[in-house]
Amino acid sequence: MTRKISAGEKINLIIRHKNDEAFARRVFQHAGVDLRKIHFVTHPTNRGWTRDTGPIFVKRKQETAIVHFHFNGWAKYENWRKDTKVPEAAAKLLGKRLFHAESGGKPFVIEGGGIEVNGRGTLLSTEQCYLHPKIQVRNPGLGKREVEDTLKNYLGVKNIFWLAKGQIGDDTHGHIDDICRFVNAKTLVLVKEKNSKDENYKPLAENWERIRDLRLEDGSQPEIIALPMPSPLYFDGVRLPASYANFYICNAAVIVPTFNDPNDRVALGILGELFRDRPVVGIHAVDLVWGFGSLHCLTQPQPV
Fold it and tell me: Cβ distance 300 to 54 under 8 Å?
């Protein structure tokens, strides 16, 4: 991942302890990474899923700033207090203004993997993740209107659309970055399960029913491309959230998780047709998804 990403951009890489840097340098050197592109940031963390814990950048005219959305372990785990300090550390390191997201005087919680934007004013998410009244409730007491108003206030989006559910096996209870992604401002991919006997078939089919009603910020209909699902992947009897939608768009390439599955080639072909301006590269991600995440989950883009 680091070798492919660093070919086109610099990387701020979080390490937990200073003594981890020497180990990382040896690994990267062996993999052919240009170490001049890597800036090691020492900051203790509870986990590596930087998409959810890291700084979310916003831009107005020529200024970029960071919004702190107060990660809380997906309202599921107790060990998150180191993670929630990452945006503050990033703002200090980069000299950026930091906005603490709040609603009703309380910290407002979302994760980067739970939202998908097209950069023009439209945001997608799932009701299962942020509007469920009982399971992994990030913002107790807030309804749909309050959540939407807060997202609009801190992210500058104008248009919010809710899909129903994420895929089975998703530890976050419905993150959208495993099911639906923009490939440009007017085109998105949405995962589709063709096997009617698979437990993902029904919830993913419901998303296809809903997406017909999606209109972008200018009132137009987006182009929607189906992305296949890999065969079910299990570890110790638990289904894992394996998905080709968890790709990361970087300057030099689009890196896509692969799973030693026949649909690997199909998914890479579909995305290759959609991203004509840079190569689409598959990266084996079975080991990563054992931790309930993949390529997109490990990254958080920083604007120039």
Answer: yes
| Token duo for residue 112 | 């980067």
Residues 63, 211 share a domain? yes
Question: pLDDT digits over 179-212, tens only?
Answer: 999 999 999 999 999 999 999 999 999 999 999 9
Answer yes or no: do 85 and 26 share one domain: no
Same-domain status, 34 and 170: no
Query: pLDDT (tens digit, 9 = 90+) per residue, 104-114?
Result: 999 999 999 99
Both 58 and 152 in one domain: the answer is: yes
Q: What pairing do the DSSP bridges indicate for beta strands 102-103 and 98-100? A: unpaired
Q: Can you say how many angstroms the Cα of residue 214 is from the centroid of all Cα atoms in its chain?
A: 20
Do residues 211 and 239 share a domain?
yes
Tokens of 165: 């559910």
**pTM (global) more than 0.85:** yes
Same domain, 3 and 144: no
Catalytic residues: 297
CA–CA distance, 270 with 249 (Å, rounded to integer): 15
- In the block, which residue shows the tokens 């700084």? 55
